Input
Amino acid sequence: MKVSVPATSANLGPGFDCLGLAISMKNQVIIRPSKFHSVSLKGEGSNNPALKDNNMFISIFNDFYHNLSHKKRFFRFEFQNEIPLSRGLGSSSAVIVSAIASAYAIEGIKLEKDKLLNLALAYESHPDNITPAVMGGFNVACVQENEVKYIRKEIPKSLKAVVVVPNRAISTQLSRKTLPFKYSKEDTIFNISHSSLLTAAFMAEDWDMLKLASNDQVHQKYRMKQMPELFDVQKTALKEGALMSTLSGSGSTLFSIAHADDSKNLEKALKFRFPHFRVFTVDFDNTGVRIEI
Ligand SMILES: Nc1ncnc2c1ncn2[C@@H]1O[C@H](COP(=O)(O)OP(=O)(O)OP(=O)(O)O)[C@@H](O)[C@H]1O
Ligand SMILES: N[C@@H](CCO)C(=O)O
Output
């Protein structure tokens, strides 16, 4: 059985904890029955031995598997990870979603995507990464009485994501602690209006509106201070043809959207200016979690 989940970029500037989209980089796990428990890990995180012993996937999978099944079985887990850890590309959401989906799939129990999303919410209280991880595409989401309410939109092939991944990790938990406890009325109004405009721009496919609408006053400037070079990355991306450029989730990745025709030039300019960071262009993902029995 094989499960894959795409990377996600959350917030998209002003949409703190509510806007997110999926991009075509994925974590994949193959699970087979085995005589004993074993784990193999390729790609991102494979140089981290702790991930083999104390793997968040295995612990969530076991929670669900033991509830769903009364048989004692062992499995071999083969992970192939493309999503860098703690870089703001939804690595934790991908793990949560794939672990829950896998436990149901291995037991042959059908799990609707909406139910999967709400089960994932118990492990990540903000819905902006888990919703696109499950559904694919662009999503606006909020939580009402422990349930995710969302609206989704496909992202056209004519757009690409250009991603700059720094060599330093930022943990979401720690990064959230750098944010102010209170915001002024002006900053609050600024973010509500820009986030609403950004959502409308995605829905109407008004790509020229993204640059203005993706401005934010509540989190990026505080977080990017931890890695001031990110301000230069953002400025360069916008100068070199990005339609928008925002801190991805809690960072450290800078995420840009460009017209497909402009994306290679943008990638080239960013690679030239920031040779010590990983820079690449990827498609958007409109599918979300995939399960193959
Ligand atoms: N492939 C993986 N296998 C096991 N655990 C993982 C894996 N990827 C991420 N994790 C767990 O998730 C943590 C990273 O979560 P964190 O929320 O800080 O970053 P992120 O999800 O990559 O970023 P963001 O939420 O801003 O998009 C890691 O420290 C690790 O505990
Ligand atoms: N909305 C979340 C995304 C990262 O998980 C944050 O900005 O902290």
